[in-house]
Structure formats: structure tokens, C-alpha cells
TrEMBL record:
Keywords, in A-Z order: ATP-binding, Glycoprotein, Kinase, Membrane, Nucleotide-binding, Receptor, Serine/threonine-protein kinase, Signal, Transferase, Transmembrane, Transmembrane helix
Keyword S-adenosyl-L-methionine among record annotations: no
Signal peptide: none
PANTHER family, sorted: RUST RESISTANCE KINASE LR10-RELATED
The protein's name: Putative receptor-like protein kinase
InterPro entries assigned to the protein according to its UniProt record, in alphabetical order: Kinase-like_dom_sf (IPR011009), LRK10/LRL21-25-like (IPR045874), Prot_kinase_dom (IPR000719), Protein_kinase_ATP_BS (IPR017441), Ser/Thr_kinase_AS (IPR008271), WAK_assoc_C (IPR032872)
GO molecular function, one term: ATP binding
Membrane topology: Single-pass type I membrane protein
Organism for this UniProt entry: Dendrobium catenatum
Gene Ontology cellular component annotations, sorted alphabetically: membrane
Domain (Protein kinase): residue spans on this chain: 182-467
SUPFAM superfamilies, per the entry: Protein kinase-like (PK-like)
High-level lineage: Eukaryota, Viridiplantae, Streptophyta, Embryophyta, Tracheophyta
Length: 470
């Protein structure tokens, strides 16, 4: 503090936080005397930063006291100090920590927040609008591509149907399908390419209608089904009774199979759905005959590429019928070879050559492998022996059944009578022959039918399967 300023000590007696008050030494002698007593009121006067404190005091100032200053209270509540304009004393000023404002420092902060908000909005608004525009344009382009693709698929299907209009089943419009299925009210199941609904023809025949999803595939599954099943007529192949194709809406109409799929019976723990060995054997023979017909009996040979229990349907008499030809391929030559890229299937039933050409070429023998795995699965699910632990990660039924059959020579591990033992043995031997790693070592389906119908003593023991699940 400059030396010419003297502290006024009388205010130190006030019951409030200690503050320092000063006067100019060269002021009137009576000035100091006036402060010898107690002080009733104090006033805080703001000083501009450009003035020295002692200069401001020497210059003097006018002080007007009012009992109530609402604007001053508002200024102080906001953290400021009350004051007046230097050039226009009638204008009050609130001295804030950052700058001088009218009435309140809060006004400054609210204005600042408002300005910041407007600035951020002006910066973000173009970015948001640009992003929305980009998303809309991109979505429109994607929708256009999807629409274009659907139109191309529809044109491809129509061209196919026009080319074979004289063949195959009847075509229905989509409104007729809604009547047949009672507006798709009773759903039977859900497959990889769509949902299946129960329906009824006007003559009372029950049918199954598979509505294909327009989001999967490129129409090949529809063409495959119509082209393959539409050319077939066999007791062990499901009948395609009709179809519908209107733009992206496509559906297939099959004969109704009241007992569902084979999968329900070989994997169920409910005794109600358990099939006896004789019935399982008849189903195995029926499936073999159906595949033999597809491979050799059709005018155009067909390879299914997805033989598994789920795709074997059972009618009211448990007669098996091969279904779901969505992955099927037609063979125009006697010994057609397929590209592994164009073939697919279900894990657990796919032949090794489908994964790698090192095992051989993809052909109708790929169906033979799938059939063998399915037959062994039918046998394995009827196994009531506890001699193998199915929770063991090393458990692989083809190896287990091969070792037990070869070493023991009888079927003590299965709930079979002596009369049924030959049936089970034949199913096991046929299954083991069908899953040989090299396609050339597998029998044809014609040979499989013969093996199932001959005596088990006429069948040789196949080599042990070389592939393992471990």
C-alpha cells in the first residue's frame, strides 16, 4: 500500500470479517477526527483498474446513499460489485470478474451461454443436415439396388417359367394362396429359406405351402425346386403340387405329410415318437430308393446335396419322402461333376470332397455320404448302451460302432432281439460303406438298395472311417 495512505483503525471493532480502510495523510485534520468514534455504515466503492488507488482517493468522489438498491443487490448476488459509469454517473454498472455489465453478472453468463449455443448450433446444423442427406441418398441407392435386384430375379424366374410352361405343376396367384392357407393362419415350421403353412385345396386335399423369404438367396432355390421336383414322380420323393411367383412373392405347394420329419422321431426322448427297428429299416430302404431314382431314374439326373433327417418327411403310413430341393443340381450328363463352390449342405452330413478337392470330385457320391451319416445317426439314436459316454469330446459314433461291431461281432449294446439283429447289422454296414472318405470307395445308391435287401452274411466289413470329429 502506498505510504501516503493511513489505515482507519476505528472500523476494526466492527463484528464482521476484518477489512482494511484507508485515508489520505494530507487530508483535512478534522477528517481523521471524524473516525475516532464507531462507524454505523460502510460503503464499498469500485475503482477502475487504470487508476491508482491513492490517486482515486485524492481525486475524491461523490457518494449517494440509498436504503434499497434492487439492481445493486442483484449485482452482488451474482458475485459482482455495484458502481456507476465514469462518464455518465447516472448509469449504474455491475463490476464483474471478467468485465463490466449492467445490473448482473448472471446476465453476462446467460448471454454467453446463448451465444455459445447459437454458435454450436450454426456449426452442427450443416453437419447434421449433410449427414442426413448422405444417409437418405445412400438408403435410396441401396433400396434402388435391392429393387433392381428383385426385378432381375423376378425376370429370371419368369423367363425360366416361360421356358418350361408345358412342364410341371400348376401355377397359382398369390391371392389364391391366401385362400388355400386361410391367410397363412397355421404355421407348420420355419426353414432356411422361408416358413411353411398348412393349407387345403378346394377338393379337400391337405397341402403344405412354403413361402420363400425374399431376403435370402437370388431365386435359385425356387428355380431348383420347380425344375427338380417338377420333373419327378416317385413314391419316395415329395410331390410338388403347385407354385406361385408374383414379383418378390414366391411360394411352393407340396403334398401334406401328416407325420412331419424324420428328425422328430430319431431325436425325441418321448416314447410316443419312438420308431421300432423294422420301421427304421423300412424308412432307410425307402430313402435309398428315392435317391436311386433321383440319381439314375429321372430323365434328368438330380443330386440333392442336403440329405438329412430334417429333409425326410413321413406320410400317415410313415412312408419316407425326400424333400427340400433348394440346393439340388441337375445333371445333364451321366457322370456329372460339380464345382465345390456351387455346392453347400449341412455340417455333419457334408461329404469331405465338398470341403476339399483333395478327397475327390463332387458328384452324386456326395449324396451317398450324407445318406450314410443319416443311417448311422438313426442307429445311434436307438442305442441304449451306456458303454460309451456321449459327453466325451472324443466320442465319434462311426468309430465306436465300427470297433464294437468288428471286435464283438454282435449287438449287445443295442435293445434288439435276435430276429432284428440282422436288420441293425445291415444298416450299420451300409452306413459305414457310405461314409468312406474317398468317393470312389462308396457304393452307388443302386448298390445300397441291393445291400439293404440281401443277407448280412453277403456283406463285407468296410475299412474303418478315417475322419474323426476330434
Amino acid at each position: 500500500m502506498p505510504p501516503q495512505l493511513s489505515e482507519i483503525t476505528c472500523l476494526s471493532n466492527l463484528s464482521r470479517p476484518k477489512k482494511s480502510y484507508y485515508m489520505v495523510d494530507d487530508g483535512p485534520s478534522t477528517f481523521l477526527q471524524n473516525f475516532q468514534g464507531s462507524c454505523d455504515h460502510t460503503a464499498a466503492v469500485a475503482v477502475y483498474e487504470r487508476l491508482d488507488f491513492d490517486v482515486a482517493l485524492k481525486a475524491g468522489f461523490g457518494l449517494t446513499w440509498k436504503d434499497s438498491l434492487d439492481w445493486c443487490q442483484e449485482c452482488m448476488d451474482s458475485g459482482g460489485r455495484c458502481g456507476y459509469n465514469e462518464t455518465r454517473p447516472e448509469d449504474q454498472i455491475c463490476f464483474c470478474s471478467d468485465t463490466n455489465r449492467l445490473n448482473s453478472c448472471f446476465y453476462s453468463k446467460r448471454n454467453e451461454a446463448f451465444v455459445i449455443g447459437i454458435t454450436v448450433a450454426l456449426i452442427c446444423l450443416p453437419l447434421i443436415c449433410g449427414s442426413l442427406y448422405f444417409c437418405i441418398i445412400r438408403r435410396n441407392r441401396l433400396n434402388n439396388l435391392i429393387f433392381k435386384k428383385k426385378n432381375e430375379i423376378a425376370r429370371t424366374i419368369e423367363a425360366f417359367l416361360d421356358a418350361c410352361d408345358y412342364l410341371g405343376p400348376k401355377r397359382y396367384n398369390y391371392s389364391a394362396l391366401k385362400k388355400i392357407t386361410n391367410s397363412f393362419s397355421e404355421k407348420l415350421g420355419q426353414g432356411g429359406y422361408g416358413a411353411v403353412f398348412k393349407g387345403k385345396f378346394p377338393d379337400g386335399r391337405l397341402v403344405a405351402v412354403k413361402v420363400l423369404s425374399d431376403t435370402k438367396g437370388n431365386g435359385d432355390e425356387f428355380i431348383n425346386e420347380v425344375a427338380s421336383i417338377g420333373r419327378t414322380s416317385h413314391v419316395n420323393v415329395v410331390s410338388l403340387l403347385g407354385f406361385s411367383s408374383e414379383g418378390s412373392k414366391r411360394a411352393l405347394i407340396y403334398e401334406f405329410m401328416s407325420n412331419g420329419s424324420l428328425e422328430k422321431y430319431i431325436h425325441s426322448e418321448n416314447l410316443k415318437f419312438t420308431l421300432g427297428w423294422e420301421k427304421l429299416y423300412q424308412i432307410a430302404v425307402g430313402i435309398a430308393r428315392g435317391l436311386e431314382y433321383l440319381h439314375r431314374g429321372c430323365k434328368t439326373r438330380i443330386v440333392h446335396f442336403d440329405i438329412k433327417p430334417h429333409n425326410i418327411l413321413l406320410d400317415q403310413d410313415f412312408c419316407p419322402k425326400i424333400s427340400d430341393f433348394g440346393l439340388a443340381q441337375l445333371c445333364l450328363r451321366k457322370d456329372s461333376i460339380f464345382s465345390a463352390i456351387d455346392t453347400r449342405g449341412t455340417i455333419g452330413y457334408i461329404a469331405p470332397e465338398v470341403f476339399s478337392r483333395n478327397f475327390g470330385v463332387v458328384s452324386s457320391k456326395s449324396d451317398v455320404y450324407s445318406y450314410g451319416m443319416m443311417i448311422l445317426e438313426m442307429v445311434g439314436e436307438r442305442n441304449t448302451s451306456h458303454s460309451c459316454n456321449k459327453s466325451d469330446s472324443e466320442y465319434y459314433f462311426p468309430h465306436w460302432i465300427y470297433e464294437h461291431y468288428h471286435q464283438i461281432g454282435h449287438m449287445e449294446g443295442f435293445s434288439v432281439t435276435i430276429e432284428l439283429e440282422e436288420i441293425v447289422k445291415k444298416m450299420i454296414l451300409v452306413g459305414l460303406w457310405c461314409i468312406q472318405t474317398i468317393p470312389g470307395s462308396r457304393p452307388s445308391m443302386s448298390r445300397v438298395v441291393d445291400m439293404l435287401q440281401c443277407s448280412v452274411d453277403d456283406l463285407e466289413m468296410p475299412p474303418k472311417p478315417t475322419l474323426s470329429s476330434s
